[in-house]
Design goal:
- This protein has 36 helices and 32 strands.
- It is an alpha/beta fold and about 950 residues long.
- The chain has an eight-stranded mixed beta sheet.
Length: about 950
């Protein structure tokens, strides 16, 4: 923390203008050994951005973040100009507090000076001071802060009279460290004085260490001598420091709202004492500025607040109950708001909502500064700097769990592709030459991507690489790099800073799918950086191998020779990352999110990779390797046989019928699912249609899309899930308020019911699309439609949606809609499974979404890089919820499907059948294999395995027990 010493002060300085004064300040810092000469330019640049004039004839010049490279050590120099200087913003300055700070220490000085700004006559006294000690005293006089907070309150105390309340308040102040025993003894000797409105006051200055105010209220209604006792204030007085506390009491009495204090919680009570009216409108907003509300953004906020037609007050949400005028620069600065803290603004009167929206929007947009979104978990992690211990290698011949990303088994030596080291200078003299270098590198990178797109020959790899081409041509990325080059950066440093800033912003998005696309930005960035630095990636071996890397980008995949790559293992990434998507598209077994220890594997060492179970085994023993080879040979044989038998009806070995359907993310894939043997579609994710349009798709568009799938199914059932979007995957034309936890917020059916017209249009389109084509000679109602509602928590939400469907069935003539329609719910929320008996009486079917059900039951984000491997649907708690669902459904004659990843897990299939599941819906690629798996066991064996699984305590124990069988 910066402190001010007398040796830091220079008296009687002279300057013709503000630039000359800045030159003297820079020279003073340089002579003190704090900065290099280049820091002067940083001082001028800062003034060009915004004036550093603070108030009361004081300016606090300091450099820009870019000029910190010229700071040798942190410190300050105070220059007194008795004759004064006309600052460039029109203010008169007598004192410069010039700061050399290597990080954000200048904010401490700023907060120390705010107390000076409200004191009258300081400007004149600073100009006339003739000693260093006098100036130091004026600038450094510490202000004692009086306490009134949650720790000084004593609410709901079991007291019999006001004297006991007074002692309770005194005891609370002692517990808070504000007073000693003498204070408590003094209060015991004094009778509380009536203030009116049921409030009483007792005070003392004996034994006071910190001025403070306590309020004690009783747990029951009290009266003494016919007067109510709403509460007793206990004041620890000290000099003038407690004056503000008395003003709070007077403000409360002036409003006449003292009678409202009984029963209020601590936060609301403190807000009332701080001057916040009970009728005031309130809005909260998070500070996103990297350095908090320092002078520049605080000044911008004050200007916005002053532009409103009514008074706006502001306070910190986390413990700061002092509401201050948002129109006072010194008050706003003195809040000391840091990045990530919430501000609560309040206003009352006509136009309050509009005014609050204006100031909150200004804060959210950065108050004139570029800001990044705030993610608390990431911010806290980034703030802690630790020396990471050396990574321990993975133990040989032991299974290491991670995230299953693409099914299949691979056995091969590893090739570890490590991120290359780019060595470059951060600064360059010739900005024009650097711009030419960057432009040439981007052009060369674009040509490389075009060549890779041609080689990819369509498919997902080509699509993603095309997106990379668009990223490379993003004018905002180029403009950000250009500005940095003009500030003196090298082409390499400017480009990577622009890429990294954009990637970090992407990583902080609530939508995990979009956040994981930050890897694509960095992939694009590394391509150009590699060209600039002339760094080439190492060549993979000529023999078959398993690729091991931190994360893999689309361009990495495009370079892979799939005839040699047997598997993919990454340290980072989730099941929805592009590395996982691309591995599935190419049919490469993949395990992702395995942690940094996988990067310690030695090139050429052998590895077993199981993409179905999400496990890897380094340096396997001969026995384990041979067992894996037998499994691999068996898998290949089974896959060939399963393909040949894919059109057979799915049954267990003893003939028990279990339907096997396909999960689809697009209606265009329905025909492919049928070709792979799917007996229907068990999950159609209809949000693809809404995400593909810039505005809500109309009725005709939706009918055409749903009809494409229904026609391709040829009379097989279609289970279509209604729109499932929300804060975690928002639509551009359906904004959702930002939520701290969108996975537990407004999404699925909850969101759809807030705009019932959207849900009604979707249901109408489904009903009309499922009717036959009489002109073609087909029956009118031959397309079975199953409509499924997502994120249902109980029967009330189902009934609300069913009311809309029932009305549509009445409105639409039977000739224009299907009559073969069922309405069911997804079992994703544990409450829905626990209440299955009440739902089963009214729904037509259940479909268990094991991905979300597992996530919510185990309280594990299935995309979490460290915990996702533990989010196993075979956990006995999840299985118990499925058992409860099936039991309730079958008791009412209803069917149950499973449409999550668990449905295609070879170990889980007999367990699910044994629990009574009637339908398994899996990815189209998995349909033949799941059908084949069903034919390998009978119903009685499945029931035994289900009973065995339910008897275990953990998912690991379940898998171990089932593998032994």
């Amino acid at each position: 923390m910066l402190t001010l010493r007398q040796d830091d002060i220079l008296l009687d300085c002279r300057a013709d203008d503000w630039r000359m004064a800045l030159d003297q300040a820079a020279e003073a810092l340089h002579e003190a050994g704090m900065v290099e000469h280049g820091y002067r330019d940083g001082l001028l640049d800062r003034e060009a951005q915004s004036s550093t004039f603070l108030g009361n004839a004081i300016a606090i010049p300091h450099g820009t973040p870019e000029s910190r490279q010229h700071v040798r050590q942190t410190g300050v120099r105070v220059l007194q100009f008795p004759m004064g200087i006309d600052w460039h913003d029109g203010n008169r300055v007598h004192v410069l507090v010039a700061i050399a700070a290597q990080s954000d220490e200048h904010l401490d000085i700023l907060r120390q000076l705010t107390h000076v700004l409200d004191r009258e006559g300081v400007a004149e006294r600073l100009a006339a001071a003739d000693s260093r000690s006098e100036i130091a005293g004026l600038l450094s006089k510490s202000v004692i802060e009086a306490r009134l907070d949650t720790e000084t309150l004593c609410l709901g105390f079991p007291a019999r009279d006001r004297q006991e309340l007074a002692l309770a308040g005194a005891a609370r102040l002692r517990q808070a460290g504000c007073v000693g025993s003498d204070f408590v003894a003094s209060v015991a000797e004094r009778a509380p004085q009536g203030l009116g409105q049921g409030l009483w006051l007792v005070s003392s200055d004996r034994g006071v260490e910190v001025p403070a105010l306590s309020l004690a209220t009783a747990d029951t209604r009290l009266e003494e001598a016919g007067e109510p006792v709403t509460g007793v204030f206990c004041l620890a007085a000290q000099g003038d420091a407690h004056r503000g506390l008395l003003e709070r009491i007077l403000t409360l009495l002036d409003t006449g709202s003292a009678h409202e204090l009984s029963g209020l919680d601590a936060e609301t009570l403190l807000a009332r004492l701080a001057g916040e009216s009970a009728t005031a409108r309130k809005r909260s907003v998070r500070v996103l500025n990297a350095h908090g509300l320092h002078a520049r953004p605080a000044k911008q906020l004050v200007q916005v607040a002053r532009a409103q037609r009514l008074a706006i007050r502001v306070r910190l949400a986390d413990g700061g109950f002092d509401t201050v005028s948002a129109s006072s620069l010194t008050k706003v600065i003195n809040l000391g708001a840091r990045r990530g803290q919430q501000l609560i603004f309040s206003a009352e009167g006509e136009g309050a909502e509009t005014a609050l929206e204006a100031v909150c929007n200004a804060v959210a947009e950065g108050l004139g500064e570029q800001v990044l979104p705030f993610d608390e978990s990431r911010e806290q992690t980034a703030a802690v700097v630790v020396d990471e211990p050396a990574l321990e290698p993975l133990p040989a011949d032991q299974s290491h769990p991670a995230v299953a990303a693409s099914p299949g088994l691979a056995i091969a030596p590893v090739f570890v592709l490590r991120t290359p080291h780019f060595d470059y200078s951060r600064h360059a003299e010739d900005s024009a030459a650097e711009m030419r270098r960057l432009e040439q590198a981007i052009h060369e990178g674009s040509e490389q991507l075009e060549a890779l797109v041609r080689e990819a020959r369509g498919g997902e790899v080509a699509q993603i690489l095309s997106v990379h081409e668009e990223m490379l041509g993003d004018p905002e990325l180029f403009e950000a790099a250009r500005e940095l080059i003009q500030e003196g950066r090298s082409a390499e440093a400017a480009w990577w800073e622009a890429i990294d800033t954009a990637a970090r912003a992407q990583e902080m998005l609530a939508d995990r799918l979009l956040a994981e696309r930050a890897a694509d930005l960095r992939d694009v960035g590394r391509r150009v950086l590699g060209i600039l630095c002339r760094v080439e990636l190492p060549e993979p071996p000529a023999h078959p191998y398993i690729l091991v890397t931190d994360d893999v980008g689309p361009s990495d995949v495009a370079r892979l020779d799939t005839s040699r790559v047997r598997g993919l293992l990454t340290a980072r990434g989730g099941a929805t990352s592009h590395s996982a998507i691309l591995a599935r598209a190419l049919g490469i077994p993949a395990v992702v999110g395995a942690g940094k220890r996988v990067l310690t594997l030695e090139d050429g060492s052998e590895l077993i990779l199981d993409g179905e179970r999400g496990r890897v085994v380094p340096a396997p023993s001969v026995e384990r390797r041979e067992a894996a080879e037998r499994r691999l040979a068996e898998q290949r044989r089974r896959a060939a046989e399963a393909w040949e038998a894919r059109f057979r009806e799915a049954r267990t070995r003893d003939g028990h019928r279990v339907e096997v359907a396909a999960n689809l993310g697009n209606t265009a894939h329905a025909a492919d699912a049928v070709e792979r043997g799917a007996e229907g579609v068990g999950l159609l994710r209809t949000e693809f249609l809404f995400m593909a349009h810039a505005q809500e798709p109309d009725l005709e568009t939706q009918i055409a899309e749903y009809r494409e799938a229904l026609d391709a199914l040829g009379g097989r059932p279609l289970v279509a899930r209604t729109l499932d979007v929300g804060g975690d995957k928002p639509l551009p034309y359906w904004p959702v308020p930002k939520e701290d936890n969108p996975f537990l917020g407004l999404r699925g059916i909850r969101l759809a019911l807030t705009r019932p017209k959207v849900l009604e249009t979707q249901l109408r389109a489904m009903l009309m699309a499922a009717t036959g084509d009489p002109a073609a000679g087909a029956p009118g109602n031959d397309k079975p439609l199953r409509i499924m509602l997502p994120m249902v928590k109980d029967v009330s939400e189902f009934r609300a949606a069913k009311a809309i469907l029932d009305r549509l069935l009445e409105e639409i003539p039977e000739a224009e809609r299907t009559t073969d329609v069922q309405l069911g719910v997804m079992i994703e929320v544990p409450s829905c499974a626990l209440l299955a008996p009440t739902l089963a009486a009214e729904v037509d079917f259940f479909s268990v979404g094991t991905n979300d059900l597992t996530q919510y039951t185990l309280a594990i984000d299935r995309g979490h890089p460290e915990l996702s491997a533990q989010a196993d649907g075979l956990h006995p708690a999840v299985l118990k919820l499925i058992e409860m669902t099936v039991s309730a459904a079958h008791a009412q004659g209803k069917w149950v499907g499973v449409c999550g990843e668990l449905a295609s897990d070879a170990v889980a299939v007999p367990v699910l059948v044994g629990l009574g599941v009637d339908e398994l819906s899996v990815s189209a690629r998995q349909v033949p294999l799941v059908k084949a798996r069903l034919a390998e066991f009978d119903l009685e064996e499945a029931r035994r395995q289900a009973g065995l699984a339910l008897a275990q305590a953990t998912s690991e124990a379940v898998r171990d027990a089932l593998e032994v069988r």
